[in-house]
């Protein structure tokens, strides 16, 4: 069975999210709502949906999302005890009416073949106006190729359109980056393991961009930069083998840039970069890196 996890905090768009669950053509799912000690109680709203679909609501005593968003996800997931497939749905995002139905219709294709399943997505505004076209993906795609497409701006991704196996989540967990920025990207690379991601393009999740969610905010760039550095540090040190030589060069360059957004590159990091470029067998990127090392470290 499918568990839909909602880490709840804001009431603003929550009714629309719940209505999208009510409208599901297949009700074989259970919703777990973890209230992050919000001052905006959803109790009265939830009473309206009491008989519409199965859900459990739990209010945590202390706010955790302001300290660690991934730890808030974790304790919400912990509310689900039996389900083997999990979806984390934002409290402002919407499911097309056939998301759950399509999940079960496709289950025989990906069962025991994929740890991560995704649904097509579309970005919508505060007023439910389409900001983007529908983003679709190859039916089967490695996590590394998918991330590289996102990295190059050829597609998009966020937490809500993914369904993942609980056993791989328990094995790897979410990386605790600030604001959980990039935490989902690393999760899909981790969770997929040596299996490809399976895509359901016949349905979609509407992901909302607004001034009250992290993606839409403009006052947290410095924290996002810190998360970016941590993510690319993990990616190039632990996952670089998943990418081809061209992709490796791009990611190594981005790793270097992500450090420079926050501080100077230290000698140990220059050594790693030079060694990585050399091992990648591309002389021009290696020489350019050496020139930057000489200019920024030796001569500075």
TrEMBL record:
Pfam families the record matches: Glycos_transf_2 (PF00535)
Single GO MF annotation: hexosyltransferase activity
InterPro entries, per the entry: Glyco_trans_2-like, Nucleotide-diphossugar_trans
Domain Glycosyltransferase 2-like: 4-158
Name assigned to this protein: Candidate beta-glycosyltransferase Glycosyltransferase family 2
Native source organism of the sequence: Flavobacterium johnsoniae (strain ATCC 17061 / DSM 2064 / JCM 8514 / BCRC 14874 / CCUG 350202 / NBRC 14942 / NCIMB 11054 / UW101) (Cytophaga johnsonae)
